Amino acid sequence: MSNPPSGHILPGLRFKQRFPLLALVVERVVLSIVLLFAVSVVIFGGLEALPGDFATTYLGQSATPQAVANIRQDLGLNRPVTTRYFEWLGDALRGDFGSSWASKNSVSEQIGKRLGNSLLLAGFSAVISVPLAVGLGMIAVHFRNRVPDKIINIISLAAISLPEFFIGYLLILFFAVKFGVATFPATVYESMGLVDRLKAIALPTATLVLVVLAHMMRMTRAAILSVMSSAYMETAELKGLGAFRSIVKHAAPNALAPIINVVALTLAYLVVGVVVVEVVFVYPGMGQYMVDAVTVRDMPVVQACGLIFAAVYILLNMVADILAIIANPRLRHPR
Amino acid sequence: MNGYTKYLTSRVTAGGLSRREFIGRAMAAGITLAVADKLFTESAQAAEPKRGGHLKLGLEGGAATDSKDPAKFLSQFMFCVGRCWGDMLVESDPLTGAAVPALAQSWEPSKDAAIWTFKIRKGVKFHDGKEMTIDDVVATLKRHTDAKSESGALGVLGSIKDIKADGGNLVLTLSEGNADMPLLLTDYHLVVQPNGGNDDPTASIGTGPYKLTSFEPGVRATFEKNKDDWRSDRGFVDSIEIIGMNDATARIAALSSGQVHYINRVDPKTVDLLKRAPNVEILSTSGRGHYVFIMHCDTAPFDNNDLRLALKYAMDRESMVKKILGGYGKVGNDFPINNTYALFPEGIEQRAYDPDKAAFHYKKSGHSGSVLLRTSEVAFPGGVDAAVLYQESCKKAGIAIEVKREPGDGYWTNVWNVQPFSTSYWGGRPTQDQMYSTAYLSTADWNDTRFKRPDFDKLLLQARAELDETKRKDMYRTMAMMVRDEGGLILPMFNDFVNASTKQVKGYVHDIGNDMSNGYVATRVWLDA
């Protein structure tokens, strides 16, 4: 873009030029909100298109046409799709996800508990896996193509190659059944103390750490290695910096963007993608909640879960992008 | 000794019945005082049950969508939860399936079985300390029979026209005679609640042996002993914890590591492996549930009885039971009743795999080309395998079956009861009448074989109102023969309920009524340290 003559700058453009960072962040946030709306349409439409409806699925073989009709009438399923969509959206914007069709419980309240459980598990796993992965990645770079690097690579590749349910079963088999040292099932409930909770989630956390570790570790390693081959690293080496110091001080900060990205994706996965782990360990998280609801076509719950999952993904991606922009000043001035 | 007395003596052995209670009940069942007294002494000498302890169950079938309202009980999990805190008016005998007293002490039908008078037990207290009254009973039944009700029992109670209190008695007036009325009241939705649950259907206040102390749908339910329980032959443990475990491997791991005492739904494929665990006991109970291949009698090519017969003869039932059920089941005979029902028609010849007869009828039917069978994993566990197995056994009879695997999602809406030939399952019903009325009456909504026979319908209604058991048994035999030889049902097997417990669990009652000791497992067993 050629420079516009001063005095005739468009207001938006002036803002952009004065606060390039803030403008980018605002743009990113607005985009995320638009995306979230688009997702809400897809969720609602997709669920409408699913075969089978709540009344028949819920009553199963004990359904009589009378009972089915009663339920449909009760839930207002006879009304047009668009009306129901906008009502739902309006309520959701106010944080009210309605009540479950099946149990009549408040969805927001249930999600509050379930999301808390999911976040505990995800948070605990992240706290362990992120530093571990980044640290191991740096160690691997330091010893690249030597024995420690190879060992780290082989173990993490093995862990990523096994399906997560299999890792879970193996851990259960050894630590719960054979040695009896770990708590299983990992069911947590409201009246449970924090210590008991942490004990209960030890095995699922271990499973998740093993599952996500390799991805982050290898990304860290690759990112740092690519920085290592650049000219300024050579300079660092020539000026006599120690190998480890040059990795931590010079290479790692410049490799931050891709690392942040993979960490954000991993975090998102830890919140929304752990259904299998939740099922295996009998852990009452969001994934399990959504699966239960899909089975009986409990739409308010499915919609709420879908929207929250989408929001988590979009939010974490947004944060990752913004952090990457902050970490890499070059990204602030798009060409 | 009949089944009910056997059950009573087993309860005495379990230490649950006092001499007085035992003799009272045995005499009500038609046993003389002297015999009852002797039976009691004998059984009381057997092993004493222990009281106390914390029982943990890991059950499949819980979901976040479960409701505490008994009218909406649907899952196996809630079935078991409901049995812990609530009582019905009538229970069924675990061994014979006959109706036995619970909150209703006794009952009397009118001559045409259209008006039933139930005497309601006195002095029974709800968990909140209030006494259960006839008004609570009436309100309960009214709530479940209301035309606007979403109750799972609505279909069962459809013939009740009027519900009223007459002194301390409950009087039900039916639109037509029904000799099975007491058994219909055993339905697990019909928990008697204060004011029928109209005030708060989800309060979980009942008259059962345990009080609900916490409940998180799909996660966990806990109970403590109801100290004022009106019965002493149940509720041996101090507290119960039921954990929802939908993953089969998780259940097995929890049981074999001793974290739970009992699990349901053991996969027949893995049961032999589980048997090897030293502290585990497999509990397999014959049931009424059955796996079926259904043909629409009114749709070509299945509107031809010779083709239907050919397909029936081409079914290798023995190998189905062996390979699909792992031996945990019994062969079926193409009618939906087995010997766990009262008035089971005995002596009907077992249909066997006969490729020659199948080929003969197939030829006679004049049909050529392949027959399309739709199936899915959700139809029943191993449904797709069963279809392929059937395809093989048909091949030997020269019948080509094309197996189409349908997505599990929407199977019950798009395939079952819609497509002319598919696989499915049926849970049992408390009575033969109900089983036939649900699925074989011409006008039944779930007549999934499109079996429409006016003479069958007439017989069904006659049998329903018939109080003479011999005559009734004859009628049921005729009906069974009609379905077996002319219907659209291929019934290769009745599946057992396969559950498992640790060896600590004692006093398990194999109840033919339904899975998990008819849901009563937690209230019937005790823990042996």
UniProtKB/TrEMBL annotation, chain A:
<protein>
    <submittedName>
        <fullName>Peptide/nickel transport system permease protein</fullName>
    </submittedName>
</protein>
<dbReference type="InterPro" id="IPR000515">
    <property type="entry name" value="MetI-like"/>
</dbReference>
<feature type="transmembrane region" description="Helical">
    <location>
        <begin position="21"/>
        <end position="44"/>
    </location>
</feature>
<feature type="domain" description="ABC transmembrane type-1">
    <location>
        <begin position="115"/>
        <end position="320"/>
    </location>
</feature>
<dbReference type="GO" id="GO:0005886">
    <property type="term" value="C:plasma membrane"/>
</dbReference>
<feature type="transmembrane region" description="Helical">
    <location>
        <begin position="301"/>
        <end position="327"/>
    </location>
</feature>
<keyword id="KW-1003">Cell membrane</keyword>
<feature type="transmembrane region" description="Helical">
    <location>
        <begin position="197"/>
        <end position="216"/>
    </location>
</feature>
<keyword id="KW-0812">Transmembrane</keyword>
<keyword id="KW-0472">Membrane</keyword>
<dbReference type="Pfam" id="PF19300">
    <property type="entry name" value="BPD_transp_1_N"/>
</dbReference>
<comment type="similarity">
    <text>Belongs to the binding-protein-dependent transport system permease family.</text>
</comment>
<dbReference type="Pfam" id="PF00528">
    <property type="entry name" value="BPD_transp_1"/>
</dbReference>
<keyword id="KW-1133">Transmembrane helix</keyword>
<dbReference type="InterPro" id="IPR045621">
    <property type="entry name" value="BPD_transp_1_N"/>
</dbReference>
<keyword id="KW-0813">Transport</keyword>
<feature type="transmembrane region" description="Helical">
    <location>
        <begin position="151"/>
        <end position="177"/>
    </location>
</feature>
<dbReference type="InterPro" id="IPR035906">
    <property type="entry name" value="MetI-like_sf"/>
</dbReference>
<dbReference type="GO" id="GO:0055085">
    <property type="term" value="P:transmembrane transport"/>
</dbReference>
<feature type="transmembrane region" description="Helical">
    <location>
        <begin position="119"/>
        <end position="139"/>
    </location>
</feature>
<feature type="transmembrane region" description="Helical">
    <location>
        <begin position="255"/>
        <end position="281"/>
    </location>
</feature>
From TrEMBL, chain B:
<dbReference type="InterPro" id="IPR023765">
    <property type="entry name" value="SBP_5_CS"/>
</dbReference>
<dbReference type="InterPro" id="IPR039424">
    <property type="entry name" value="SBP_5"/>
</dbReference>
<dbReference type="GO" id="GO:0015833">
    <property type="term" value="P:peptide transport"/>
</dbReference>
<feature type="domain" description="Solute-binding protein family 5">
    <location>
        <begin position="100"/>
        <end position="447"/>
    </location>
</feature>
<dbReference type="InterPro" id="IPR006311">
    <property type="entry name" value="TAT_signal"/>
</dbReference>
<keyword id="KW-0614">Plasmid</keyword>
<protein>
    <submittedName>
        <fullName>Oligopeptide ABC transporter substrate-binding protein</fullName>
    </submittedName>
</protein>
<comment type="similarity">
    <text>Belongs to the bacterial solute-binding protein 5 family.</text>
</comment>
<dbReference type="GO" id="GO:1904680">
    <property type="term" value="F:peptide transmembrane transporter activity"/>
</dbReference>
<dbReference type="Pfam" id="PF00496">
    <property type="entry name" value="SBP_bac_5"/>
</dbReference>
<dbReference type="InterPro" id="IPR000914">
    <property type="entry name" value="SBP_5_dom"/>
</dbReference>
